[in-house]
From TrEMBL:
EC nos: 6.3.5.2
Name of the protein in question: GMP synthase [glutamine-hydrolyzing]
CDD domains (alphabetical): GATase1_GMP_Synthase (cd01742), GMP_synthase_C (cd01997)
Taxon lineage: Bacteria, Bacillati, Armatimonadota, Fimbriimonadia, Fimbriimonadales
GMPS ATP-PPase domain sequence ranges: 207-396
Length: 521
């Protein structure tokens, strides 16, 4: 980490209650955290190896033991000393259910009846936690089975191949379910979680955007003291919300820096200036560096070279403006909770260099603060709304750091950027008019570096084509082209060739990722 020092993140001051999700490596563990938070109850995930320490230090208000890929019967399997959570309401799910059974004196066996997929619950005990499952369809994914409930527990549901699909010891407030209430394939799973959290664990719904803002403002003020924080704003959701939060906490001492490289979408640079400089009256330093970026990109056509140049130019901008910024003591970083959870995981093969993880000038190696490190993306958007950011900014799609440079094949010139901006504006306006933007993860227009012949007003044209791309995705790792109705595409194509000078053809990109990527370069 060089000289940069990441301060131990201040746990959000404990004004709210906490549900600790102990992660045994299940594929849905993060989803459990999200589900709990949907009830306005704060939840965090901790790997099982660190759970004991965390429980002793923080005494959570409830604990959920997640699923996991291993068998509780294997030597060295993930484990937790359940005496640590005695007195704390607990729900075991799948592996967690089996761990509860094994560690509390029940019997778990490897079974030849493996259950994967949707199953029907039977023998549901009236009044039990399992009785919240009105539609008795539940999602199963397990090999081992609980054969015998632990002493003090009662059986509350089965399936035809799983004798102990749910059990509970209501007096001890301990519950186990073999199925996954957190996934949407268990239609009444939400009701079960709600009953556990609100009724059995008696939790208060004290976690909201407003309470997050209040607590984070207090914690940032405590951390920064009389210092100043440098916060780079790009126009994207995370940096905008982070800046708005820091402005709320620190006023003028949140130094917002916007580097206008000329490679944003149409109108976005103006919106950043208007929102932060105008609406929030922030201490905004907007550097118009378009000329420098275009000069550096002149004649460059190789995709990786472009990415590298944009990254290097950013560093140079900060170096040029060092004297205006070097009195900042802290650097704000837009880390989100999934990054925190996943940090330390291995990296895949490098396909593209992301410019925003590049080096920083030495003087910028300040202490880091990460005010959004507790939030998922949808929560960041909710906080942005609560802070009064414009809807267009809060709902903005992910956008690559090198901007339109990677949506223009061949050389990047101001004229070619203008073409892409205008075509992109038309495409997104029409998508919005048809309400199609809601199913889209990212959509854009790109310019190709080939020319083809057309005819306009009896004249021969020899111009460039625009490629339209609109993809649906969960996390940008995989993506599929969105099935935009043909008439809508035709309308967009017609508008683009008529309204954007320099374009005589429009294509729609049908490729999924993989094998293509979302961006062209
Ligand atoms: P690809 O094109 O690799 O993109 O399928 C995956 C996601 O990453 C975004 N992207 C970037 N984001 N800096 C970023 O912050 C970058 O340099 C960068 N390059 C691509 C892309 O928009 C998509 O969401």
């Amino acid at each position: 980490m060089g000289l940069t020092q990441l301060l131990t993140p201040p746990a959000v001051p404990k004004k709210h209650q906490t549900v600790l999700v102990v992660d045994f490596g299940g594929q849905y563990s993060q989803l459990i955290v999200r589900r709990v938070r949907e009830f306005n109850i704060y939840s965090e995930m901790v790997p099982w190896q660190k759970a004991a320490e965390r429980i002793l230090a923080d005494r959570p208000d409830a604990v959920i033991l997640s699923g996991g890929p291993r068998s509780v019967l294997e030597p060295g399997a993930p484990d937790l000393d359940l005496s640590l959570i005695a007195g704390i309401p607990a729900l075991g799910i799948c592996y967690g259910h089996q761990l509860m059974a094994k560690n509390l004196g029940g019997v778990v066996e490897t079974s030849s009846d493996k259950e994967y997929g949707s199953r029907h619950l039977t023998g549901i005990e009236a009044g039990s936690l399992a009785s919240t499952i009105g539609v008795p369809e539940v999602w199963m994914s397990h090999g081992d089975q609980v054969r015998k409930t632990p002493p003090g527990f009662i059986l509350t549901a089965s399936t035809d191949t799983c004798p102990v699909a749910a059990f509970e010891n209501a007096a001890a407030r301990q519950y186990g379910v073999q199925f996954h209430p957190e996934v949407s394939h268990t239609p009444d799973g939400r009701k079960l979680l709600e009953r556990f959290l609100l009724k059995h664990a008696g939790l208060k719904q004290d976690w909201s955007s407003e309470s997050f803002i209040e607590e984070t403002v207090a914690s940032v003020q405590g951390q920064v003291g009389e210092g100043r924080v440098l916060c780079a704003v790009s126009g994207g959701v995370d940096s905008s919300v982070m800046a708005a939060l820091l402005i709320r906490a620190l006023g003028e001492r949140a130094v917002c820096v916007f580097v206008d490289h000329g490679l944003l979408r149409k109108g976005e640079a103006e919106e950043v200036r208007e929102t932060f400089g105008g609406h929030f009256k922030a201490n905004l330093k907007a550097f118009d560096e378009q000329a420098a970026f275009f000069a550096a990109l002149k004649g460059v056509t190789h995709p990786e070279r472009k990415r590298k140049i944009v990254g290097e130019e950013f560093v140079k901008v900060f170096e040029r403006h060092a004297s205006e910024l070097s009195d900042c003591d802290f650097l704000a970083q837009g880390t989100l909770y999934p990054d925190v959870i996943e940090s330390g995981s291995s990296t895949a093969a490098k396909i593209k260099t992301h410019h925003n993880v590049g080096g920083l000038p030495d003087w910028m190696r300040m202490k880091l603060i990460e005010p959004l490190r507790w939030l998922f993306k949808d929560e960041v958007r909710a906080v942005g709304r609560a802070l009064g950011l414009p809807e267009e900014m809060v709902e903005r799609e992910p956008f690559p750091g090198p901007g339109l440079a990677v949506r223009i094949t061949g050389e990047v010139t101001p004229e070619r950027v203008r073409i892409v901006q205008d075509a992109d504006w038309i495409f997104r306006t029409v998508l919005r008019e048809h309400g199609l933007h809601r199913q889209i993860w990212q959509s854009y227009a790109a310019l190709l570096d080939v020319r083809s012949v057309g005819v306009m007003g009896d004249e021969r044209t020899y111009e460039h084509p625009i490629v339209l791309r609109a993809v649906a995705s969960e996390d940008a790792m995989t993506a599929r082209a969105v099935a935009i109705p043909f008439e809508v595409l035709e309308h967009v194509a017609l508008r683009i060739v008529n309204e954007v000078r320099g374009v005589n053809r429009v294509f729609y990109d049908l490729t999924s990722k993989p094998p293509a990527t979302i961006e062209l370069e």
